[in-house]
Design a protein that fits this description.
The chain is globular. It is an alpha+beta fold. The protein has one domain: Nucleoside Triphosphate Pyrophosphohydrolase (Alpha-Beta Complex), CATH 3.90.79.10. The strands form two sheets. The chain has a four-stranded mixed β-sheet. Strands 2, 3, 4 and 8 form a four-stranded antiparallel β-sheet that branches. Helix content is 20%, strand content 41%.
Length: 157
């Protein structure tokens, strides 16, 4: 759409599967779109190494520390639609996706206060497949369709 603000964002995300559940974070009112479920992770700061960005975001949003990681996939989304403040936006998001293993028995909790994440929880894969979780970002659907790529041969899961 002519006049739409162009935005490109590159992010780094953790895919963590445990006991047939996927770890998801909820976007706060400070983020967009608020209330939607996402993967732990976020934008890569200018000059930041992508893996370091994923590890930083993982800790800020979940309090967890990765013990093993493997880059698995790249996802992207391109939309032209109303965005923040109902202004039209031509948005292109590029998502680097890592399979991540964390210490067993560690429980996630949001560390960063006032950020773009207000909740974190393990969501059963069956609940996600049945679309009973509420709104999830397209990258979550992408991961769910390829979940075996994130669990096979990594010790993850």
């Amino acid at each position: 759409m002519e006049g739409a603000k162009s935005t490109q964002r590159i992010g780094a995300y953790a895919v963590i599967v445990r006991d047939d559940a996927l770890l998801l974070t909820r976007i706060s009112a400070a983020g967009y779109p608020p209330g939607w479920w996402a993967l732990p992770g976020g934008g890569i700061d200018h000059g930041e190494e992508p893996l370091a960005a994923m590890l930083r975001e993982l800790h800020e949003e979940t309090g967890l520390i990765a013990k093993a990681v493997r880059l698995v996939d790249v996802h992207h989304v391109h939309t032209v639609s109303p965005g923040r403040d109902d202004q039209w936006e031509d948005y292109h998001g590029i998502h680097l996706l890592w399979a991540v293993d964390v210490e067993p028995g560690t429980e996630p909790h949001v560390v960063e206060r006032g950020g773009t994440t207000d909740a974190v929880r393990w969501v059963p894969l069956a609940e996600l497949r049945a679309q009973q979780t509420g709104a999830v970002l397209p990258v979550v659907t992408h991961v769910l369709e390829r979940i075996d790529q994130f669990t096979v041969g990594t010790g993850v899961g």
